[in-house]
Amino acid sequence: MIRCLAVDDEAPALLILADYIGQLPFLELVGTTTNPIEALTMVQQGQVDLVFLDIQMPKLTGLQFLKLAGNKCKVVLTTAYPEYALEGYENDVVDYLLKPISFERFFKAAQKALALLPGPVAPAPVIAPVAVAAPVSIAASPAAGHMFVKGESKNKFLRVNYADILYIEGLSNYVSIHLPAQRVVTYQTLKELAETLPQPPFLRVHKSFIVSLDKIRMVDGNTIYIQDKEIPVSDTYREQLYKLIREQ
Q1: pLDDT bucket at 180, cuts 50 / 70 / 90
Q2: Which of 121, 165, 225, 236 is deepest in the core (most CB within 10 A)?
Q3: Could you tell me which residues carry 4-aspartylphosphate (predicted)?
């Protein structure tokens, strides 16, 4: 896991970064702070691998932070001011994100960090705990009972068996495919994926979720339970869900 710290003097910006970090399986949020001095101390103590760092802050600017931190961590700059981009890259930052930061742009920066940092969980075959796929469409093979997800390298594909899928969660322009022992993240909208999956057993139950009916252990009102996960059912899809449950 890449240990991440978010530093910004504005609390709303920290909430967005914390949410984005929490959505990626290879990132671990170790803290958020509005105090760059506190952040620098954590870096110097070896608690952090990657810092998402605002430039315009009181007490210590992001560029001053970079010089003091040296090579003890990697840094992704986050700012509303594009004029600092050149100086940031001259200080060997991983990436430069302009606010407002979209999840898609954040994901690309995180992938750059994943390639640069030694030791974190890297994209791996399906048997590994976590696999992260590169931006690509998903090719489904209904007759064979599986689909292939493009991996992080040009000719690498990850096979995902339909029977293994617990549920699928939409993350903006990405989907997170939850399996019993891992999670596969790939660039694909939930709508596009829903059109390729066999229905049933797969059913969209919310704007952000597709579930496998075979994996549901209980439905209680507007909540589906799959293992320990609670998945909401929206009014749009509730009638279809209950119709399929009664038929089975």
Answers
A1: confident
A2: 165
A3: 54
Q: Residue 219's Cα: distance from chain center in Å?
A: 27
Check whether the bond before 129 is cis (ω within 30° of 0).
Answer: no
**Are 143 and 127 a contacting pair, CB within 8 Å?**
no
What is the average pLDDT across 95-103?
Answer: 88
**Residue ranges per domain, the chain?**
2-116, 138-247
Distances (CA, A) of 64 to 14, 56, 82: 20, 10, 17
pLDDT exceeds 90 at position 42: yes
- Domain 2-116 shares a fold with domain 138-247: no
Work out the angle between the directed axes of helices 62-69 and 36-44 (0-180°, nearest 10).
20
- pLDDT value at residue 197: 85
Task: Look at residue 29 in the predicted model and tell me its pLDDT.
Answer: 92
Spatial strand order of the sheet with 183-187 comes to: 130-135, 183-187, 174-178, 167-171, 209-212, 202-206
Under CATH, which number does the domain 138-247 receive?
A: 2.40.50.1020
CATH code for the structural domain at 2-116: 3.40.50.2300
Q: What is the pLDDT of residues 112-160, one digit of tens each?
A: 898 888 653 333 333 334 444 444 444 444 445 888 776 555 556 778 8
- Go through the chain and tell me how many residues it has: 248
238-244 contact pairs (CB < 8 A, 24+): 238/205, 240/203, 241/203, 241/205, 244/200, 244/203, 244/213
